[in-house]
Amino acid sequence: MTTRETLADSDDIGDSGERTMNYGKEQVAVYRTYATPLEDVRTIPESDFDGRENTLFGLDVRVQVEGEEFFPSFSEGDNSMVVATDSMKNFILHHAGEYDGATLEGFLEFVGARFLDTYDQMEAIEVSADEIAFDERPVPADDGAGFEASDLVFGVSDDESGYGEIALERDEDGTVITGQTSGVTDLELVKVSGNSFTGYVQDEYTTLPERDDRTLYISLDIFWSYDDATDALGDDPERYVPAEQVRDIAGVVFDEHDSNSIQDLIYQIGLRVLERYPQLESVSFQANNRTWIEVRDDLEGDATVLREPARPTGFQQFSMDRDDLEEE
Ligand SMILES: O=c1[nH]c(=O)c2[nH]c(=O)[nH]c2[nH]1
């Protein structure tokens, strides 16, 4: 997942005739040690995740601001209203020390609201971040029985990470959230059996053989939006949806469900997510097919030998809401 937005992604292009005008800073990496622990989250049957210590809290932040008062900086080279993007970076770093909450989304709202409080010329702001994830490292337990996670040493993770995006505008009483998306990105899952891909269009362009079973390798980004965006902040941990639990739902549904395609699989994951979290309005997916190619199936039992696939890669995008759950 990248937090970079291109002009073509912008809402403002096309029919509205409205001008695109914003600026900001991206790839602001910030690390906070001993942030507030996330506690008292509701547990679900698919996951043993019940909170995180936040001993190391790392974020790769992107901030984008808008306001009519920035127009002269584009049209006349008049920087009198411009907050340097370098200062934005410093503002984000400073406020990482002021945040006393426990979630990525909470920090984005906190720092976004502080920007609007501080700079009147900013009318609207979007703040997003990818979590910079760290893994626990096992060390022998103090009581000599087995192993426990070190309090001090962490591995730099190559695995999936949390994602958040918050849009804010000023209103009479302060700031209001106008957009929110949370997510878990760069999940990579392989299921060795129980995946078919059959029944697709057969015509003169079809060379892919139907498969009753295949080793399915997917990379997956999952995003969700709450009915009430303030639930994303984690102030009420019971209503917060942790990225770790959604990650675990994806793994469990993949394990349980014999799918006939990635499309079929992500739909089932989406249903489970909406079922577990009534506070969510919608869930969406970006999947990529990275399935290996079988080179040997003449081995004993179910053993096979596989190789990396050649490019190009297939993808699936899908969004769903509570109506899909009700139709089941
Ligand atoms: O799960 C899949 N969905 C597809 O649409 C597709 N197309 C393809 O070539 N392989 C796959 N796999």
From TrEMBL:
Query: Residues annotated as region Disordered?
Result: 1-20
- What's its catalytic activity? urate + O2 + H2O = 5-hydroxyisourate + H2O2
Task: Give coiled-coil spans as residue ranges.
Answer: none
Q: Which domain of life is it from?
A: Archaea
Q: Tell me which Pfam families the record gives.
A: Uricase (PF01014)
The record's annotation in PROSITE patterns points to: URICASE (PS00366)
Task: Answer whether the UniProt record assigns the keyword Cell membrane to this protein.
Answer: no
Keyword field: Oxidoreductase, Purine metabolism
Annotated InterPro entries: Uricase, Uricase_CS
Family membership, please give it: Belongs to the uricase family.
Q: What is this protein called?
A: Uricase
Name one process (GO BP) from the record: urate catabolic process
Provide the function of this protein. Catalyzes the oxidation of uric acid to 5-hydroxyisourate, which is further processed to form (S)-allantoin.
- EC number(s) of the enzyme? 1.7.3.3
A GO MF term: urate oxidase activity
What pathway annotation does it carry? Purine metabolism; urate degradation; (S)-allantoin from urate: step 1/3
